[in-house]
Fold Formyltetrahydrofolate deformylase.
Amino acid sequence: MDHLKNIARLLITCPDKPGIVASVTNFLYSHGVNITTLDQYSTDAEGGNFFMRLEFQTPHMDISAPALEKAFAEVIAPKFEMQWHISYGANIKRTAILVSRFDHCLQELLWLYKRGKLDTEIAMVISNHPDLKEDVEAYGIPFHYIPVKKGDKGASEQAMLELMEGKVDLVVLARYMQILSGDFVSHFPQQIINIHHSFLPAFVGADPYRQAYEKGVKLIGATAHYVIEELDAGPIIEQDVARVSHRHSIEKMKDLGQDLERTILANAVKWYLEDRIILAGNKTIVFE
Amino acid sequence: MDHLKNIARLLITCPDKPGIVASVTNFLYSHGVNITTLDQYSTDAEGGNFFMRLEFQTPHMDISAPALEKAFAEVIAPKFEMQWHISYGANIKRTAILVSRFDHCLQELLWLYKRGKLDTEIAMVISNHPDLKEDVEAYGIPFHYIPVKKGDKGASEQAMLELMEGKVDLVVLARYMQILSGDFVSHFPQQIINIHHSFLPAFVGADPYRQAYEKGVKLIGATAHYVIEELDAGPIIEQDVARVSHRHSIEKMKDLGQDLERTILANAVKWYLEDRIILAGNKTIVFE
Amino acid sequence: MDHLKNIARLLITCPDKPGIVASVTNFLYSHGVNITTLDQYSTDAEGGNFFMRLEFQTPHMDISAPALEKAFAEVIAPKFEMQWHISYGANIKRTAILVSRFDHCLQELLWLYKRGKLDTEIAMVISNHPDLKEDVEAYGIPFHYIPVKKGDKGASEQAMLELMEGKVDLVVLARYMQILSGDFVSHFPQQIINIHHSFLPAFVGADPYRQAYEKGVKLIGATAHYVIEELDAGPIIEQDVARVSHRHSIEKMKDLGQDLERTILANAVKWYLEDRIILAGNKTIVFE
Amino acid sequence: MDHLKNIARLLITCPDKPGIVASVTNFLYSHGVNITTLDQYSTDAEGGNFFMRLEFQTPHMDISAPALEKAFAEVIAPKFEMQWHISYGANIKRTAILVSRFDHCLQELLWLYKRGKLDTEIAMVISNHPDLKEDVEAYGIPFHYIPVKKGDKGASEQAMLELMEGKVDLVVLARYMQILSGDFVSHFPQQIINIHHSFLPAFVGADPYRQAYEKGVKLIGATAHYVIEELDAGPIIEQDVARVSHRHSIEKMKDLGQDLERTILANAVKWYLEDRIILAGNKTIVFE
């Protein structure tokens, strides 16, 4: 991925006060990097929180990456009580995709991957069903079939952990129909992205599309979010909706829902891989 | 409203079985009416429910309206166990608008009304605050200030009933911030339309825009619905959403929400006045 | 395709006058068919044109399909000067896809096809480049590589005609980058669907995305249309747009454009296969 | 407008090279201003153009506004060959609205104005028809009726210039149906905003809605743009579309078009008043 070789991105969160932008850009400039994109956002100039994303070019940087980070950690970060992180394009992020039987989200990701539109290496696909093995391997990507035995979810999670821990940077639940334990989730903080349907109003319980149909909703939607222990309550990354009418059967609603899901999940994954998402408590700041 | 003078609309709900369309169109044709629009929908050809809306021209009708209805009631309706209703454009529907202090929905309706885009006579505006009196009277529409005394909502509802009962066909809650009693609602079955904000996910409790902001939703929405006794649970007529990002303050979200509310409520009111909405249990069939 | 076995669809165009719906539905009813969907539209009740689409179930039809058509042709059609056509679900439509190198539209159609969402048999894919051969054959669909020699387009069109004429009902140009001759087009009247980019304002000449970028448009779009001899001027079937800003590079605009193209073309193809499109002069009536 | 009292905005255009953000933010920080929003965009890090918008708080600024500007002009601007402008919230922009008979755009702007959503003083409304005088004066805004005599447009333009020149910062053409001369336009460079309908494809000549209807377009749109001498060719500020189908009469299309026009024009005007638009040749960079 040549277009990433010389790129780095700095994400910052800190209390807002005067001088942050000046300090950070000055520091980077003085080390020979060229800032190409700067996005910042403050919840409030007085007493609010400040968020910033900088993308910069490193070919003329006058020190090594570790030295830059050391200097930043000593000179800039403490002055503003910053939480910060620099990622380097040269360190390609590795992604694992978890999937069950529905293949629409998986296929969209694989297709984008093949066309070079995802800045990642898809390291593996894991499924609790063997069905999609051939489709995945046609892309030259390892496929692992890890069934979930009723009453012994722990074993399958353990097997997945062994495959993934330390080996992937992002876990995408591309319609993986198993609920992950809080323990499993804790191994990948802010590293698991899920997609699920959303309705106005929300429907709880089984078969939400049937409920939506019976309620006569005029919109159906989907939400991509980080996974936290509490089910479907993680920070929202992206949402969208499509119009429906009484003419949409449940089947047609589901088709539309799948179209939403694959687009929305793909966007959320792209933004993650391009370091565009900053977590702020239970919400996300997305610098699209 | 000259364009309505010769128009009538027939709405039908019945169990689906073969021959409904043929029978109804035949009947109308044999009485000299010219069908200009026919919309129908069946939940299932076998054992489903059937819904139909016909708009027709009456100038060459060979019998009077009462005679037509009598014939229909005797010849067609029983054969198919129909619930049905004919409305005549010449009988202009009368509308009452209930409003509190926010004027965005009211202003949109008044503006459309003035331009001849609402097939109704706005018979009155009622408010629990005196603020909008002047704005309403500038349109030549009677304004009634009926305050709601704490602990005695009954008195104000009684006053409103006296003004409206038998005198209006539609009650529009254009951001009327009082909860109407089940008793009041029962005087206007499927005749009260309300607008309220909607979010993915839904937020209960006070200040939902603040909750939406704090949750970092990427969409805000609004829903127009019929009012039933259970709060905000009535059949949905229309919904829409707008995109927001972290850059939207709560204030900006509310502005956007108001833009949604006025458009969505106006559409729902138009559809009601044009007899485009059929209630089917707790959902609506809208023949847009 | 079992869900199509018992379905037939009747499309009608004629001058509007009273009694059309009654006559047609009566006729069908008297022959034991059950109308499940009826859409009609009139440009004007007086002196306008009338369009109707009926979908009906044939299991209890009391005569054969040819007999039904003969009766309709003799009894109903002449009375109203109808142009009409009945298609039967049991006669699966056959589709040829023409493609060059861009695969996004092709992949979307193949993927929908595999999932059973297109009511057709994809009989062949033809390309002027060999690149996509493997992708197509993985679906078990014949792939024909027919290069276009400079200055001798006639030979390739002749080769395509031999493969397709009488053997396909629909030709989809899924980003086929050759201009078809008027002669070729005349073999498939209202049977060729193309997709192309659309902008506000329109840009003529080379590299329209660059022009759109330089003009700073805020929307990019795409249009699916029937192919007629005059380039890109055929009747519009479907259109959509996506928002862009100055932040979208030409590359990103093209990605978004491809997403639009695949969705819009897929919808147009679905509607064609479901007999939802009626041509009215140079415009389409689409009964979605 | 208290919320504007302490705000200033700096807009910058220059060739991109390293150090711009650092220099500018450093300069401002050293003078005690607090940057609350910074948006920047570069067409290309190497040899491209750089655009930046900063919003900052001035209460703790250590020098006067003129002194700040003088210092910036001497120390920062020349180093980067900047075109730049600082506007101060305390200097409320004055707006003139030009209108003919259609009132939808005017009403929207007046309504937003009354609610405090436009950061401007509407100094006057000018019309070539007397019809809207009463509506405008109800808001306490001066209304000037300046008819346009056939063959003597010059006189009316001269009368308008006398009213507006040096007295307004922005001229909004809210469906003003007269073509302004190049000479008139040259008095208000990048200060006149117009709204007009847009279609895919574009239609030239009279009655574009009829043409769109006859062509069967599936989308109608509108564009807000700066006015330059060449008609409707000025830089685009904002665009949007709405879906239509064959069911939309020309009348209904126009209603929808008016809804688009009022929203899009209002957005463009808001962005202008908040200094969010930078002109880059014939395109706009809008920092929404």
Remarks:
- The two ends of chain C are 21 Å apart (CA to CA).
- The mean pLDDT of chain C is 95.
- The longest strand of chain C covers residues 7-15.
